[in-house]
Amino acid sequence: MEAQARSAEFMDWVTARRRHLHSIPELFFQEHNTSAYVRSQLDLLGISYRYPVAGTGIVATLGSGKPVIALRADMDALPIQEAAQESWSSSRPGVSHACGHDAHMAMLLGAARLLSQRLRHLQGSVVLLFQPAEEAMGGARKMIEDGALQGVEAVAGMHVWPSQPPGVITTRPGTIMAASDRFVMVVRGRGGHGAMPHMSVDPVVAAAAVVLALQTLVSRETSPLDGAVVTVSRFNTGPGASNVIPDQVELQGTIRALTAHTFQRLHARVEEVAAATAAAYRCTCGGVAWSAVPYPPTVNDPGMASLVLDVARALFPGDGAAADAKHVSWAAAAAAAAGVEGGASEGACAVSHHGGSSSSSSSSSSPAGLMVADKAEVSVSGGGWCAPGGVKAQLLDEPSMAAEDFSFYAQELPAVMTFLGIGDPALGTDASLHNPKFTMDERQLPLGSALHAAIALEYLKRNQPDAEEGAHA
Q1: Phi and psi (nearest 5°) for 304?
Q2: Chain centroid, CA 364 distance in Å
Q3: Residues 106/18, Cβ–Cβ less than 8 Å
Q4: Within a 10 A sphere around the Cβ of 347, how many other Cβ atoms?
Q5: At 342, is the secondary structure helix, strand, or coil?
Q6: Residue 278: which of 192, 184, 188 has the closest Cα?
Q7: Nearest alpha carbon to residue 392 among 426, 435, 341, 439
Q8: β-pair partners for 420
Q9: For 278-300, what is each residue's pLDDT tens digit?
């Protein structure tokens, strides 16, 4: 399987699918064309599926019987104007795949292809979850409500991670990503002329005080050993002249926490502090509006996290994977991605990011007979993935304060979220997620596909009924 994933033909195949998906981004629960394309690829691979699930979602199945593991990819894009101008760039103004979900889908399709060629050797079932609405409205929760996890015993997800160098595979047991919610609040006063502020009740000063007061929820009310974030990211006084005090100010922001207890406390205290601080300035601030679907922390099952690290070290021993898990912090990962510790990609294999002749085009098909999409020109020098420092499996020392609705799956079943490094400054793939300049290191697509497939195979192997009976003998 590794040899096939490293081939130039497979690289072309998975890259073509990523580029087509990249060109047709759609927002949450609107992924109709995206879903149709994914289904067309599953049809060509001969993989059966159930649709619709959660509106635009897909639940595909390979193999039969138990054990059963699910692999998940998210499908939605973001309301962000893409900075790049490639032939496969977003065809929809103001919408782009700035969080790598196009890569997630392509890698899962790649895993589907690898596994479909090994159906006779599958010792159970692999379920593929193509999920809508990760970025908002908790598509994972809707998938669960629609029965996507029926019969599933474990679930694995993967996210491309630009703060890690290419080829670095990381995970950790326990909490790996934070809980998240968003808020909107309005501080109301009484407007007036800027020359006579004493005749008004100034909501601008009151709102500024609210912003500052909210910072103490982390700095003075949260243990330094407990991760939490309160960010006020929008301060809107509305249209008007510079010498006019408005009647109200709208504040928007987010809270993050690593535990459910701290998350609940922050919800309550944001409302209390905002109301009390506004009142001290003779203003009001009531009725804070929160997200329709707040995301809980993403908590990895220790056994599943160990399985991922074992698989990565066994699958890529020739790439420099350590015999023991190497610990890495977010600061160290970011520094490495920036080239501080060997993040440069000298002599790396190259993937062309321009049009012209290619080994795959919209008018040709791969040896597997799968049509390559429009805007999917791919030119690969060599085959397989390319990581300057070799593929490495590393154990994270600390969780991320980013959030994921994969957390809903983890509340139901043993689950693991894994990060796949793509950050190469030489290619410009180190721009952060949710950034107009975010772009994918396509050299890692075959690696992600192979890792997905290997995780599934190893889970099935370890959880055979005979193996379980022997373990308890």
Answers
A1: -70, -40
A2: 32
A3: yes
A4: 8
A5: coil
A6: 188
A7: 341
A8: 160, 169
A9: 999 999 998 899 999 999 999 99
Q: Which residues of the chain have pLDDT under 50?
A: 320-328, 330-382, 473
Residue 147 β-bridge partners? none
Residue 132 CA to residue 139 CA, distance in Å, equals 5
- Cβ atoms 234, 252 nearer than 8 A: yes
Three-state DSSP class for residue 59: strand
3-state SS class at 186: strand
- The span from the first CA to the last CA of the chain, in angstroms, equals 33
Half-sphere exposure of 427 (CA within 13 A, CB side): 29
User: Which residues does 300 contact at the CB level (< 8 Å), separation at least 6?
Assistant: 171, 172, 173, 174, 175, 176, 410, 415, 416, 417
Tally the residues of the chain. Answer: 473
Distance CA 106, CA 364 (A): 19
Count CA within 13 A, CB hemisphere, residue 382. Answer: 10
The arrangement of strands across the sheet holding 392-396 comes to 48-53, 57-63, 125-131, 68-74, 154-161, 415-421, 168-171, 392-396, 326-328
Q: How would you class 261 by CB atoms within 10 Å of its CB: exposed for 0-12, middle for 13-18, buried for 19 or more? A: exposed
Residue among 52, 44, 36, 64 nearest 148 (CA): 52
The DSSP annotation for 151-185 comes to: T--EEEEEEEETTS-TTEEEE-SEEEE-EEEEEEE
Q: What integer pLDDT is reported at residue 418 of this predicted model?
A: 98
| Sign of the alpha-carbon dihedral angle for 353, 357, 363, 367 | negative
Alpha-carbon 203 to chain mean position? 38
Q: How far apart are CA 434 and CA 182, in angstroms?
A: 16
List, in sequence order, the alpha helices (H) in 232-326.
260-280, 302-315
Tokens 């699958």, located at residue:
315
State pLDDT tens for residues 81-139.
Answer: 999 999 999 999 999 999 999 999 999 999 999 999 999 889 999 999 999 999 989 99
The DSSP letter of residue 426 is: T
In our burial notation (b when 16+ CB lie closer than 10 A, e otherwise), range 195-216 reads: eeeeebbbbbbbbbbbbebbee
DSSP assignment of 197-240 equals GGGSB-HHHHHHHHHHHHHHHHHTTS-TTS-EEEEEEEEE--S-
124 CB-near residues (< 8 Å, 6+ apart): 63, 64, 65, 66, 67, 68, 69, 460, 463, 464
Q: Alpha-carbon distance 357 to 361, whole Å?
A: 8
pLDDT of residue 346: 33
Q: Which residue has 């009151």 as its token pair?
A: 206
Q: Which residues contact 334 (CB under 8 A, 6 or more apart)?
A: 163
